[in-house]
Specification:
Number of domains: 1
Distance between the termini: 17 Å
Strand content: 15-25%
CATH superfamily: Aldolase class I
CATH class: Alpha Beta
Order of helices and strands: EHEHEHEHEEHEHEH
Helix content: 25-40%
Number of strands: 8
CATH architecture: Alpha-Beta Barrel
Shape: globular
CATH topology: TIM Barrel
Length: 227
């Protein structure tokens, strides 16, 4: 699987093509879907541009993106301030405005509570592991493990999560984004790419947009994958 991470917690000042509004996210989602992406990960924003899990904003963002890319998995982040479990509980009746998956970081003290809240509203859990974590007795609803790594930490983190038997998505950020993607391709793990993870191409020059990054990642992944 190649997932596109469209915006993350970045600000508009960091890149002119960063999609923040539902309409811009939908446009970018359509562009990367045309390149073979089957999952998009995004950070919905409220009217002033702050990250949010509030039901109305989640519903508007997800429904707008889903209309542009029906059938594509839509993932959101839960790594935002606020009464997150309560906000997630409000997603139950959102129907087409409810995400398919939401990421939960094991470094968050409330991660098990958040995972349970997501499971209760029928949203899958993308469990993010970036360091040592107690992965015994995992809660229900976990669809995959996302390993956020550097070239130095990838091997040890993978040794901890691979025995769980769940699909693994491996990615890096900023200077580590491209080296980790290459490493993940060799191991045949799922990968992701987009402006959340890096603003530059493998040669260090600034990327035009999400579609350019994803196209390069797809080419890199195919070239590095075992044959």
């Amino acid at each position: 699987m190649l997932q596109a991470c469209l915006n993350g917690s970045r600000t508009a000042e960091e890149h002119p093509a960063l999609p923040l509004s539902p309409e811009r996210l939908a446009e970018d989602a359509a562009d990367v879907a045309a390149l073979g992406v089957t999952s998009v990960h995004l950070h919905p924003r409220d009217v002033i541009g702050a990250e949010t899990l509030a039901g109305p904003e989640i519903a508007t963002t997800i429904a707008t993106v889903r209309a542009a890319v029906p059938g594509i998995e839509i993932s959101v982040s839960t790594n935002v301030p606020g009464t997150r479990a309560t906000l997630i509980a409000s997603w139950g009746p959102l129907a087409a405005g409810r995400p398919d998956v939401a990421s939960v970081h094991t470094g968050d003290p409330a991660w098990r509570e958040l995972a349970l809240a997501l499971h209760r509203v029928n949203v899958g859990v993308e469990l993010v592991v970036a360091g040592p974590a107690d992965l015994r007795d995992l809660p229900g609803g976990i669809t995959r493990i996302t390993v956020a790594a550097t070239p130095k930490t990838a091997e040890s983190l993978l040794s901890a999560v691979e025995p769980l038997g769940l699909p693994v998505l491996l990615h890096g950020r900023d200077a580590d984004a491209w080296p980790v993607l290459t490493y993940a391709a060799r191991l045949e793990h799922h990968v992701r790419m987009g402006l959340e993870d890096t603003l530059v191409k493998p040669d260090g020059t600034r990327a035009k947009n999400n579609a350019e990054l994803v196209a390069l990642a797809r080419r890199n992944h195919r070239a590095r994958a075992p044959r």
